[in-house]
Write a structure and sequence with these properties.
27% helix; single chain; eight-stranded mixed β-sheet; alpha/beta; 413 residues
């Protein structure tokens, strides 16, 4: 139990609290720091700032390319096979230096992004920003927020390159230096974005509740947080939490999936919906000895910011027409909509479809008897045990093995 005003005797600068509601404290090298009081954000404390400085140093100075990661699966990309050709093509057009210095753990490809205003939390060198820049088109706009100067330097270096490559008359991207826990300080206003994406970044934050709260604030009603991150099968003990390499490689800062679900729904998001999930085993002998039998999974979830009053359950008919998903739209692991086929949806899913960017692609019909609310599977480890793992690495398919770094080049269908 950490007490207010008590020095903590741990080895590295990482926090016990990931919601900002408990005390924070750490020891980094020979520096013993003091725990922060419960009413302070971890990011506002000396401790939290040093955690953020450690992350900046790890990703800005220590890592020079994705191959420098000690655990390749930690921040390699993951997605199901059958990624649309347009997405593969968009990634294939991103400059090699941007891709080489990219450390995400998922392939962030939300559907139907044409003309949308998108925010990337922890955008790094900008791989996902530039991919989305191509997909949203010249009428859309993508903002990347990152705190690391070295990564922002690379991202900004190629704005003109991608503007010209995509044939745009002016840039449709911007990169802002800032903290994802404090988007207001970076100038981001309420109810601004249609979609927020993030790629193996939230677990690096010392105050995950603040990140999710800020994401909810800047999203429009009906907007979506679509992101990949690492999750643990249960709450992690101190010896894992305090391990610097495991933190930098996306493991030690991982929330348990259960805590994440509790935080996100308490903030006001919809129930988390699993898009894909795969186990992330640790093979490095030294690190494996630290984690023991704790398991980790790389998961893509989608959360929606819904109106206060939900719509009634109904039948939803997908009209088709979304590029890359013309005939079949898979919203999550449990809900696939085939063109012109009526599907009964519960109150929450009806509200998502009617108030999000997907509304224009659906028709809705009333039903005589209301449907009970579905108990969707949120636990990624149970999902994997029932449904198997999603292919681990971007654009993985039967004839193309998963690779770290710059994959997803265009392929023939």
């Amino acid at each position: 139990m950490v007490c207010k005003g008590t020095s903590l005797n741990v080895e590295v600068g990482f926090l016990y609290s990931f919601t900002g509601e408990l005390y924070c404290g750490l020891r980094l090298g020979s520096r013993t720091l003091v725990a922060s009081p419960v009413n302070m954000s971890c990011c506002d404390s000396v401790d939290g700032k040093r955690v953020l400085d450690d992350v900046k140093d790890y990703y800005g100075k220590r890592l020079k390319k994705s191959d420098d990661l000690r655990i390749p699966t930690a921040c390699s990309t993951q997605q199901t096979a059958g990624v649309p050709l347009a997405v593969r093509a968009a990634i294939g057009e991103v400059h090699d230096e941007v891709v080489t210095r990219y450390y995400g753990c998922g392939l962030i490809t939300p559907e139907h992004v044409d003309g949308c205003k998108v925010l990337d939390l922890g955008s790094g060198t900008g791989r996902d920003v530039y991919m989305l820049s191509k997909l949203v088109g010249e009428k859309g706009f993508v903002t990347g927020v990152d705190m690391t100067d070295e990564q922002l330097e690379i991202a900004n270096k190629y704005v003109s390159y991608h503007t010209e490559k995509f044939g745009y008359t002016k840039p449709n991207v911007e990169f802002i230096k800032g903290y994802i826990e404090k988007l207001g300080e970076a100038g981001l206003k309420d109810n601004t974005y249609d979609i927020i994406v993030s790629n193996c970044v939230v677990n690096l934050s010392p105050d995950k509740k603040a990140v999710l709260t800020e994401a909810h604030r800047v999203l429009k009603t009906g907007g979506e947080l679509y992101f990949s991150d690492m999750y643990a099968d249960r709450d992690l003990p101190e010896d894992i939490r305090k391990h610097q390499v495991l933190w930098g490689e996306c493991f030690a800062g991982a929330l348990s999936w259960k805590e994440f679900a509790e935080i996100s729904t308490k903030i006001g998001f919809s129930q988390p919906r699993i898009v894909s999930a795969s186990l992330s085993p640790i093979e490095d002998p030294e690190l494996k000895a630290v984690v023991g039998d704790y398991q980790f999974a790389s998961v893509t979830y989608r959360l929606f910011k819904l109106p206060a009053t939900k719509d009634e359950s109904c039948e939803a008919v997908y009209n088709g027409g979304i590029s890359g998903w013309e005939d079949t739209l898979k919203l999550d692991y449990n809900h696939t909509f085939k063109r012109s086929e009526a599907v009964g949806v519960d109150s929450e899913l009806a509200t998502i479809l009617k108030h999000s960017r997907f509304a224009e692609k659906f028709q809705f019909e009333k039903i005589s008897d209301a449907l009970a609310e579905e108990d969707n599977l949120v636990d990624p480890f149970q999902y994997i045990s029932v449904h198997g793992q999603s292919p681990n690495a971007c654009c993985a398919s039967d004839d193309k093995p998963a690779t770290n770094g710059g994959c997803c080049k265009p392929t023939e269908k």
